[in-house]
Amino acid sequence: MKTFAEFWPFYVGEHRRPITRALHFAGSSLALVLVAAGILTGRWALLPVALVQGYAWAWVAHFGFEKNRPATFKYPLWSLVGDWKMWGLMLTGRMGAEVKRLGLGEPLAGAPQHAPP
After folding, report:
1. Per-residue CA distances from 42 to 30, 37, 54 (Å)
2. How far apart are CA 117 and CA 113, in angstroms?
3. Would you kindly state where each structural domain of the chain is located, as residue ranges?
4. Which of 56, 65, 97, 101 has its CA 20 to 30 A from that of 46?
5. What are the average pLDDT values for consecutive 10-residue runs of the chain, which has 117 residues?
């Protein structure tokens, strides 16, 4: 994929379940808190902990609930941008509308997962 605009529908399709998005939001939020705490207190050891927290919650969501591989493995930069776009949309209560706009509701049981182009 050459542009984020091409990537975004794929990314949202990999995050169809509300629990997946909620766990992403929790992990990203915790990572932000840890980065801020590390900077404000000078406890630089919190920075790698923030990175682990950001990814750990997302990976639990993907492997445990969404049953797919995180987009980070194939599209690391676009995935990072997508994480924060989704976080912002969730923070402002607009992610549900975005999922509907893209026609990507929760998959039916047993339905094949969306595959990258």
Report:
1. 17, 8, 20
2. 13
3. 4-101
4. 65
5. 94 94 97 98 97 95 94 93 97 95 73 48
